[in-house]
Write a structure and sequence with these properties.
single chain, about 180 residues, alpha/beta, Rossmann fold, 2 domains, 8-stranded mixed sheet, two-stranded antiparallel ribbon, 8 helices, 10 strands
């Protein structure tokens, strides 16, 4: 009996050691949906042109700010120090309206919905690409809204908001997205 318990404990410890690297990964992992949304945000950088004046030099990082807390925090944080357009991405979390207007990309979490109108008005005309998964975000004045349709992630682009912010969106991205206008209302 003693030998059986020892063998059982040995196997149990071995099994626990074997799965230990997986447990933190699962706890810290992000959902597939969050990872897909973060990948969309990363790829938007590649297809949006900011005015040259926005970057003080060739080494100036891209500031990706997150307004509010969301299930995407871990996935967006994974973009930290990645490179896009030969610039390092810096991820910042903010609730300050002044700071939001100093970002290159502002992801507005669903928890930021209550102050959405204020944040949009603070960033309009400031060369900030606003992105969110808040329903009807693009129609509400945001630049790019993420949404699900037929079990697939899609995005809507508000061309008026992009124009007002001085951003040029690539025709390739425009072909892939649903074009909306805040002036349609």
């Amino acid at each position: 009996m003693f030998k059986l318990n020892t063998i059982f404990r040995t196997y149990l410890v071995a099994a626990l050691v074997a799965i230990t690297p997986i447990v933190p990964a699962l706890g810290q992992s992000v959902s597939k949906e969050a990872a897909v949304k973060a990948a969309f945000v990363f790829n938007f950088i590649k297809f949006v042109e900011w005015p040259d004046k926005v970057f003080s030099g060739s080494e100036t990082p891209i500031k990706l700010c997150v307004w509010g807390r969301s299930a995407l925090d871990g996935a967006l944080n994974a973009l930290r120090n990645k490179t896009a357009k030969n610039r390092v991405i810096r991820v910042l979390y903010t609730q300050e309206e002044r700071e939001a207007s100093r970002c290159h990309i502002l992801f507005i979490a669903r928890t930021g919905h209550a102050r959405l109108e204020t944040v949009i008005s603070q960033t309009t005309g400031k060369n900030v690409l606003t992105v969110s998964d808040i329903p009807d975000f693009a129609r509400s004045g945001g630049t790019i809204g993420l949404f699900q349709s037929e079990h697939r992630m899609r995005f809507a682009i508000n061309v008026d908001a992009a124009r007002r912010s001085g951003l040029r969106i690539s025709s390739q991205l425009l072909k892939l997205g649903k074009i909306v206008s805040s002036e349609e209302q």
